[in-house]
Design brief:
Layout lengths: L4 H9 L18 H7 L9 E8 L4 H4 L1 E3 L2 E3 L2 H21 L4 E6 L5 E7 L3 H5 L4 E6 L2 E2 L5 E3 L10 H4 L2 H6 L8 E6 L15 H5 L15 E6 L29 H10 L16 E6 L7 E2 H12 L13 E4 L13 H9 L3 E5 L20 E6 L8 E9 L2 E7 L16 E6 L9 H7 L3 E5 L5 H10 L4 E5 L19 E4 L1 H13 L3 E3 L5 E3 L26 E4 L3 E4 L7 E5 L1 H18 L5 H10 L14 H4 L6 H4 L4 E4 L3 E8 L3 E11 L5 E9 L3 E4 L3 E4 L4 E10 L8 E12 L2 E14 L3 E6 L2 E6 L5 E11 L19 E13 L2 E16 L5 E7 L9 E8 L2 E8 H16 L13 E5 L1 E3 L3 E9 L11 E9 L7 E3 L8 E3 L8 E2 L5 E3 L4 E3 L2 E2 L6 E4 L10 E4 L1
Parallel strand pairs: 9-11, 9-13, 10-11, 13-14, 14-15, 15-24, 18-19, 19-20, 20-21, 28-35
Antiparallel strand pairs: 1-5, 1-6, 2-3, 4-5, 7-12, 8-26, 16-17, 16-22, 16-23, 18-22, 25-26, 27-29, 29-33, 30-32, 30-34, 31-33, 34-35, 36-37, 37-52, 38-39, 38-51, 38-54, 39-40, 40-46, 41-42, 41-47, 42-43, 43-44, 45-46, 47-48, 47-49, 50-53, 54-55
Length: 1015
Amino acid sequence: MISTLRNRILVLSITILATGTACSNDKVVNDVKSTADMLSDRPIVPTAELFVVTLNSPALLTVSKKTANGWETPPAAKQQLLEEQAEFLRKLAALSSEAKVVYQYRLTVNGIAIFAPASLIASIRGLPGVAKVDSARPLARPQVEEVKGSATVADVDSVNFIGADMAHARGYRGQGMRVGILDTGIDYTHRMLGGSGVQADYAAVNPALPNPAFPNKKVVGGIDLVGTDFDASSPLPAANLPHPDSNPLDEAGHGTHVAGTVAGLGDGKFTYSGVAPEAQLYAVKVFGKDGSTNDAVVIAGFEYAADPNGDLNPDDQLDVINLSLGGGFGQPQILYNVAVRNLANAGTVVVASAGNSGAVDYIVGAPSTADEALSVAASVDGSTHNWRFKAVRFTAPSNPHWLAKATEGPISKAIADSGNVEGELVDIGMADEDLSDEVKAQLAGNVALIQRGKVAFFDKLKRAADAGAIGAVVYNNDAGKPIPMGGEGKVEIPAIMITQALGTQLKTDMAAGPVRIQFSTGELIEEPELIDSITEFSSKGPRSEDNLLKPEIAAPGARVISAAMGKGAGSVEMDGTSMAAPHMAGVMALIKQKYPTLSSDELKALAMNTAKPLQTAAGIPIPITMQGAGRVQVAEAVATPVVVQPPALSLGRVQLGTTRQEMRKLKLRNLGSRDLHLSVTAISTPGLNLSTPAAVTVPASGEVEVDVEIGFDMANASAYVSELNGRLIFQAGSQVVAQVPALAIRTQASEIKVSGTSEALQLTNSSPVQGLALPFNLIGEDTRKDAPNANELWKGRGCDMQSAGYRIITKMTPFGPAEMIQFAFKIFTPVTTWHLCEMSVLIDADGDGIADQEVASMTGVSGSATVLMDAAAARTIRLGFEKEVSDGKKASTPNYQPALLGMGPIIAFPQSTVAVLEVELSKLAKSSDGRLHVKLATQGGGDVVESDDYLGNGLGDWISIAGTADTQAFKDMDEVIGVTMAGASTALAKGSGSGQLVLYFPINELSAGQAVVVH
């Protein structure tokens, strides 16, 4: 979930970009009215929204068995589920006529999606058979870059680059395989996808009505689960209600491109065939024309994939489904994790894109983070247009022949269609405002040089074109690479983007004399080192919370050519992991065609075992958290004689003070009829040691287990958190037949213990790692939430609060010394990144039980802060926003800037259980007794549910704490006490208040305990 209320304050006030943050107060959990009264940006007037009601009986796939004669479901289990759902529906109808049933799930989960007023949820939870009720969580529309379609099909393309042509030559073309595309729909009129190839046929289709062109011989089935106007992220409740129909026509373009890559039939000129060209496609439309979708819709897509004809017999289940959708910082606890697991265990391979958020730790996105999903990163294939680039020429007094890549985008006229455009550069700054008459006169007949920033690319280019410019050059506003300029609208002049460094150089040269550009040169810039690299946009792992390996494999996702929606037989190039995932969906169809009896886990392992590990041009291995096992190799996957499971040694977080040993087992299965004699070698980065037998024999059609001894040490431990990479390589003679990547996230661990009294504390540390001790006055302690069972993967307790403390200290600010209050939050288990855990301190100054102020954390990719909000003002803003929505005004998001009272830093320790919020004490509203009356809460972000945790029971109690430094129980304390093996001591001054002291050890070994209360 990308946008949050508090992140919008960040953007407005301190320009920290919180891209991909997963915290959001816009969810209904616990008691709706109570939490709206408490947390200041929660919905105030309950409105109708989509909920998923899960019932008690097991889903049918979990009790069914696949036999040689098909699926067998126990009649009693089926009858129990159907009667339970029928009884629920009867009770629901009796409860209220306002609740609308949208979907019924029976196979992958036992549940019902309803569109209902939030005020009914407490009553619905009490109906017979109800296990839980969850708000549907948004899933973002895939964000891809549409690239100029100047490339035509060449000898090397994204499909034959991964070896699919060699698999085709062996007879594996996807015959008999059925692949579901859960996306924006499919343009079934496109020639590549079985249609007529006539543009007018697409334009004539009414997407809400059946059409004789669907189904066809390629797109043989499907369903529209949402309708044209559905948008899960719209503030208008009417747009949140799906309206399913039988026509899954693509109205956005994404699904059509994806479908072409999986199984399209190319013409050899503008398009090339997909990875599994003889596979059949099913269009499962989960997005409307615009906006996002949610997990309630996607689970309905899983149900369709399990049983397309709806007879509750999964004999017709799809072989593979492709999910090029989702959001960043995906977590293991997701509502649809159970559905993914059940669908995959039943035999459908689930392939999902890793996300397009770049090389940011832990940003790899859901649903690819579900355990059984195959998470796909994006790599660069060897297509000519990916490493040989058309060039523009600059001529300047200092350099008469200066070439740069012609990085075009879809919002400008193609250079190839513009003729011989050449002109002098005129600097028009940022072009974020209308140009003056003087600048317009200078620009007419020349080429605009523009800096990126402030306004959309189209706005800049339009101002230049309207002023008579014959072309435009936009230079970046940071050190990043140029990107294809996208957005709404199009100008009829050529335009390119260049680097910040080149733009700065051009401006310097322009001061010395005229600088000219020639757009069409016929010259090329070659960068073969890009081949088999990971794209800059591909999302990095590991998975949030548990540090396990995601993404798991890479496939081509840069400038992929495929079908263009509504263009008859035309093509378009797109960038994105959305383009990488369908390559893998096609690959999995080919592997499953070769091995129809293997499980989804085994098929996934075959693809990962045979992937090509990638490295930089300098020979340095690319981190496993970027590429997973490596880039897919189809021919090797369908030819290897062995499958190794698990396909990765995903070791998670390892806390170390010195050394540690673990044992794991790998299972090798011989897929052939001859004994396999394999040698085993291991490679790893310093700090990780892998040891196995030097050789192993796997009997024909048999299995063996191999013990792997894993050693960890502190080699090269300059950073607190380190990624440790390794690989096990299995060879038959000189041929590599399988490889298994290993990943561990090593953190340093102290082992601090405390003794003595508050007047003379003694701290010892038995680890060579220097530890930290943070003293606070204890506010209170809390109990652990119950652990979820195997059928509760949707539950999360990652931000479960253990205790909290506070202290008032004096710090130097730019304006002189000031008293600060710091609130420490201690949770039970470490978080990988703190933006997944929102912290709130509610302050009630007038004693009415409703917060007057709120101190809250905001943590995003590019920065973090503590904010102080006027809670009453925030509620007023929220109420006004909700009134606009109810009045039919399509307000976008509420602006909480007027409620902002102050800001401060967050002291957040990565891979830790401790974080500290800090604000200026004088800005807080004290009660009439001079004290602060507070309530503390944490909220787990992302896709987890049951995420709120208040300090104390239920919604917590108001707690009175000191309002001045002298009235604390303990005062004048050091912010941080460093503790080496030599130990440390400190004396704490007593204040006039009463209470206990708590010390937090943010990098301690968990087994040693991180909080100690001193009486």
